[in-house]
Every structure is written in structure tokens, then in C-alpha cells.
């Protein structure tokens, strides 16, 4: 249903609180053996984060008429995949970060082995939720499609492949096209999948609308990562919850380093306009998605 600009923050906060509750129910309690591993899972996922990906699931699904209960499993699953990727990205063998969301990264708060296992367990739990959630008990094709979308976005054509290319790019000169390919895989694929999972849960079958939503997700996914690159240069560490300048210190190619800061900001605005164009046929029902497109390039964390 349409939402006024004034009601958007409350709508987003409600989505965020809802997925937090779903995650809390699915994550094992810390009292269950192995306690330390379960504590690491909950530490890595609960209570922090923008929850952009599950919010996109909810906003897309509701725009297409899905009951919100039907969106809980895909929303939680995509956030768990995102959470696992952050735990592993922060490891010494990857990006070697000490802070995430304003507090010690998982391997610093626990230990490296526990962090590896926590990431593994979060990934598995995401697919367990999609396989077991009763909302799709009578809808096996939709359940299978949700699993397929999430798996494709997480694999070598998506997030894992993007991270591999990102690590291989350290110290190299990239073209803008090469950099955008990395960004589309590492960050954009899961954001695009979040939109498409919301549509799948709503059983949207209109090929034209699905293509528009896929394009929207792809565009805001790329703009999200370019804005991250910008914030690594211009952001406030206190707001970001992590140190800035990390990409430059590691000699990692970013949009500002490859194209310049002015072009990076121009590209963000260009992608934003194209994303809004992709929603032209969705009317007031797409207002939350439009608001999220604004948020992606205006955020400061």
C-alpha cells in the first residue's frame, strides 16, 4: 500500500524490528551446546545493521500484495547470508578488519576459528529457514525458487566471486568496467536477490515487472557499493562504526581511486535516477522502494 514520506521511517523501523524478531527466533540460544559458537552467531547478527536487504524483501513483497508473514523467511535468510559474508570478510585472511558496526569484529570478540565456524553456520541456517518455513509448505516451486535465487547471489557469479575478484585486485589498476563488475557481484548480487525474493514470495509472474525489479535491484546494488567507497574516504568513523581509509591503506581499487570522487558521486546520482525509472510502472505501491533508493545514496553509514 502507498506510504507518505512522513510515514517512511516508521515503516522501515517496523520492517527492521520484524526481521530482528524473526532472526532471534531462528538463531540458536546461547545456552544450547556449543554455547560459544551460538553466542558468536547471535553477536554477529542481532541488534546491529541497517537491515537493507530484508527491508527490500518486505517492501517488494508488500508492493506486490504478499502477506507479510510470507516474507519473513526470505527476509531472515538474506540477512543471514549477508551476516555470514561480513564475518568472513573481516577475517585476517580477507579484509583483516577489527571493527564492524561500532564494535569488535567476530574474530576479535571471539577467535578466528569460531568466526569461521560462525560464518559457516549462518550460511547453512539461511537455507534451512527457506527449506523449513511453514509459509511455503504447500508451495514447493516457490520455496525452490527462493533457494535458487539466494544460492545464485551467494556463489561464484555473485558474492563469493566478487570477494575473490576484490582480493585479486589489490595493488592493481582496474578499468571502471572491471570495478563495476566486482561491485555488482560482491554487493549488488545479494541486493538484487533481495528484491527478486520479495517478488518470488509474492508469486509475481509478470515477466516485464520482474525484469524492472531486477534492474532496480541491480542499480541500487551498484550505487550502494559506490557510496560505500565514497564513505571510506569522506565518512565519519564514529557514524560508520569502523575506520575510514581502509581501502587506500590496503591499495584496493575503489570508485574514487579509479574514476575520481566527482565521477563517483555523479555515477551514484545517475544510478539513482535509472533505478527510479525502473519503478515507473509501479505507482504508489513502489513508494517504499523509491524511498530506499534515496536512502542508498544519501546515507552516511
Description of the structure:
Helix content is 69%, strand content 1%. By secondary structure, the chain is mainly alpha-helical. It has one domain: Orthogonal Bundle (Farnesyl Diphosphate Synthase), CATH 1.10.600.10. A two-stranded antiparallel sheet has the order 1-2. α8 runs antiparallel to α9. The radius of gyration is 18 Å and the shape is globular. The two termini are 28 Å apart. The mean pLDDT is 95.
Q: If you compute it from the alpha carbons, what radius of gyration comes out, rounded to the nearest whole angstrom? A: 18 Å
Shape: globular
Strand fraction band? under 5%
Report the helical percentage: 55-70%
Task: Assign the CATH architecture.
Answer: Orthogonal Bundle
Give the topology string: H per helix, E per strand. Answer: HHHHEEHHHHHHHHHHH
Low-confidence stretches: none
Mean of pLDDT: 95
Strand arrangement, largest sheet? 1-2
CATH fold name: Farnesyl Diphosphate Synthase
Structural class: mainly alpha
The biggest sheet, with number of strands, parallel, antiparallel or mixed sense and barrel status, is: 2 strands, antiparallel
| Secondary structure tally: strands | 2
Detail the topology: elements first, then pairings.
Elements: H1 8-26, H2 35-45, H3 52-63, H4 72-89, E1 99-100, E2 103-104, H5 106-109, H6 112-132, H7 140-154, H8 159-168, H9 176-201, H10 207-234, H11 237-240, H12 246-249, H13 255-259, H14 261-278, H15 287-298
Antiparallel strand pairs: 1-2
Helix pairs in contact: 1-3, 1-4, 2-6, 3-4, 3-9, 4-6, 4-9, 7-9, 8-9, 9-10, 10-14, 10-15, 14-15
Amino acid at each position: 500500500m502507498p506510504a507518505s514520506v512522513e510515514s517512511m521511517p516508521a515503516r522501515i523501523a517496523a520492517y527492521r524490528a520484524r526481521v530482528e524478531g524473526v532472526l532471534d527466533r531462528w538463531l540458536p540460544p546461547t545456552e544450547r551446546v556449543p554455547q560459544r559458537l551460538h553466542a558468536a552467531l547471535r553477536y554477529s547478527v542481532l541488534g546491529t545493521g541497517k537491515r537493507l536487504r530484508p527491508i527490500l524483501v518486505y517492501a517488494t513483497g508488500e508492493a506486490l500484495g504478499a502477506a507479510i508473514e510470507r516474507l519473513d523467511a526470505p527476509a531472515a535468510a538474506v540477512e543471514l547470508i549477508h551476516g555470514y559474508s561480513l564475518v568472513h570478510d573481516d577475517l585476517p585472511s580477507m579484509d583483516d578488519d577489527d571493527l564492524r558496526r561500532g564494535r569488535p569484529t567476530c574474530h576479535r570478540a571471539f577467535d578466528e576459528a569460531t568466526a569461521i565456524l560462525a560464518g559457516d553456520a549462518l550460511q547453512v541456517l539461511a537455507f534451512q529457514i527457506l527449506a523449513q518455513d511453514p509459509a511455503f509448505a504447500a508451495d514447493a516451486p516457490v520455496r525452490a525458487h527462493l533457494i535458487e535465487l539466494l544460492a545464485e547471489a551467494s556463489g561464484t557469479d555473485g558474492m563469493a566471486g566478487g570477494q575473490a575478484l576484490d582480493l585479486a585486485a589489490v595493488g592493481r589498476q582496474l578499468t571502471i568496467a572491471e570495478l563495476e563488475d566486482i561491485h555488482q557481484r560482491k554487493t549488488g548480487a545479494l541486493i538484487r536477490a533481495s528484491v527478486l525474493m520479495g517478488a518470488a514470495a509474492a508469486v509475481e509472474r509478470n515477466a516485464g515487472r520482474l525484469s524492472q525489479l531486477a534492474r532496480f535491484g541491480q542499480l541500487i546494488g551498484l550505487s550502494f557499493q559506490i557510496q560505500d567507497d565514497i564513505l571510506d574516504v569522506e565518512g565519519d568513523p564514529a557514524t560508520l562504526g569502523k575506520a575510514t581509509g581502509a581501502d587506500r591503506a590496503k591499495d584496493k581499487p575503489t570508485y574514487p581511486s579509479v574514476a575520481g570522487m566527482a565521477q563517483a558521486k555523479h555515477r551514484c546520482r545517475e544510478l539513482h535516477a535509472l533505478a527510479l525509472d525502473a519503478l515507473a510502472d509501479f505507482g504508489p505501491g513502489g513508494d517504499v522502494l523509491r524511498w530506499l533508493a534515496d536512502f542508498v545514496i544519501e546515507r552516511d553509514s
